[in-house]
């Protein structure tokens, strides 16, 4: 069953023709899962290495080989990052949106699953698609150990540029058996992914700072952490080698760029940088 805000979605047996753009660690499991649900699935990536690794789906780096005249849904899973000026870099989202606009001959559903800065989806819908597609944002959630159950098929947030887009988005993800939380605006959906990762960043940064305190006092960080975590509403995380990966550091900076109310996050970024230096010195001793 699929759910939206606790309500069961009626699952229909419609088959969709789907193109997933971006076949990295998020896009490929997405394309594979959609295909396993019985929908005709194409994957596109400009990287020949990504195409080589994509098994059991129709994958190509040649955009014109995809049968755009029959594609019902485009799922955007391309990389987003930080520019040289430390601002959110949405260039890949704009590039693939222009590709979709250049080929589509019908009114497809475009689902942007990549993490984007707030306002990106509506701006793209207005300036690139000029309202000619239905557009939703269903930000991915991903854990590499369980790419389907903790990635594609888990509780997800959905927001749309309009009611028609939302209805089509509900229908499509209902076919995939994906539980959905309906955000009242697409901007709330965009912010939700940034905020959840920034919150995790803060939690880890606190643990890192606490470990430095323990080092200064000559205490066992593990023992103090275990002692604190006996309380029912406390869960101090582990502090390891710094806050790595692609998503948490990037999304923390997205939230910093979103508002002037960013003191905690700025200090958390500084704390992580200081922790890395502290850890490096500790390893040298």
Question: Kindly state the mean pLDDT as a whole number?
Answer: 92
Largest sheet: 8 strands, mixed
What is the CATH class designation of the largest domain? Alpha Beta
Shape: elongated
Beta-strand content bin: 15-25%
Are there runs of 5+ residues with pLDDT below 50, and where?
A: none
Structural class: alpha/beta
Number of helices: 10
CATH architecture assignment of the largest domain: 3-Layer(aba) Sandwich
Q: Could you state the CATH homologous superfamily of the largest domain?
A: NAD(P)-binding Rossmann-like Domain
Fraction of residues in H or I helices:
40-55%
- CATH topology value of the largest domain: Rossmann fold
What does this structure look like?
The protein has 285 residues and is of the alpha/beta class. It folds into two domains: 2-184, Rossmann fold (3-Layer(aba) Sandwich); 191-284, Orthogonal Bundle (N-(1-d-carboxylethyl)-l-norvaline Dehydrogenase, domain 2), CATH 1.10.1040. 45% of the residues lie in helices and 15% in strands. It has ten helices and twelve strands. The strands form three sheets. The chain has an eight-stranded mixed sheet, sandwiched between helices. Strands 1-2 form a two-stranded antiparallel sheet. A two-stranded antiparallel ribbon has the order 7-8. Strand 9 (109-112), helix 4 and strand 10 (134-137) form a beta-alpha-beta unit. Helix 7 packs across helix 9, helix 7 runs parallel beside helix 10 and helix 9 (247-258) runs antiparallel to helix 10. It starts with a strand and ends with a helix.
């Amino acid at each position: 069953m699929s759910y939206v805000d606790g309500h069961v979605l009626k699952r229909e047996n419609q088959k969709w023709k789907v193109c997933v753009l971006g076949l990295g660690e998020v896009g490929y499991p997405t394309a594979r899962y959609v295909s396993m649900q019985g929908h005709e699935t194409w994957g596109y990536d400009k990287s020949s290495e990504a195409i080589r690794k994509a098994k059991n789906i129709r994958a190509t780096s040649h955009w014109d080989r995809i049968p755009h005249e029959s594609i019902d849904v485009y799922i955007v899973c391309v990389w987003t990052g930080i520019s040289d000026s430390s601002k959110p870099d949405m260039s890949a989202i704009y590039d693939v949106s222009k590709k979709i606009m250049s080929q589509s001959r019908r009114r497809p559903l475009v689902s942007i699953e990549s993490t984007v800065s707030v306002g990106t989806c509506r701006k793209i819908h207005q300036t690139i698609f000029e309202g000619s597609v239905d557009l939703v944002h269903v930000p991915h959630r991903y854990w590499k150990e369980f790419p389907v159950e903790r990635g594609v098929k888990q509780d997800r947030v959905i927001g749309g540029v309009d009611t028609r887009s939302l209805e089509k988005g509900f229908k499509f993800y209902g076919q995939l058996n994906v539980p959905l939380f309906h955000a009242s605006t697409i901007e709330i959906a965009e912010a939700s992914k940034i905020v959840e990762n920034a919150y995790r960043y803060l939690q880890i940064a606190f643990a890192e700072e606490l470990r430095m305190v323990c080092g200064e006092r000559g205490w066992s960080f593990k023992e103090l952490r275990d002692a604190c975590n006996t309380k029912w509403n406390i869960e101090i995380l582990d502090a390891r080698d710094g806050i790595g990966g692609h998503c948490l550091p990037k999304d923390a900076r997205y939230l910093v760029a979103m508002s002037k109310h960013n003191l905690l996050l700025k200090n958390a970024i500084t704390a992580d940088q200081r922790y890395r230096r502290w850890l490096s010195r500790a390893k040298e001793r």
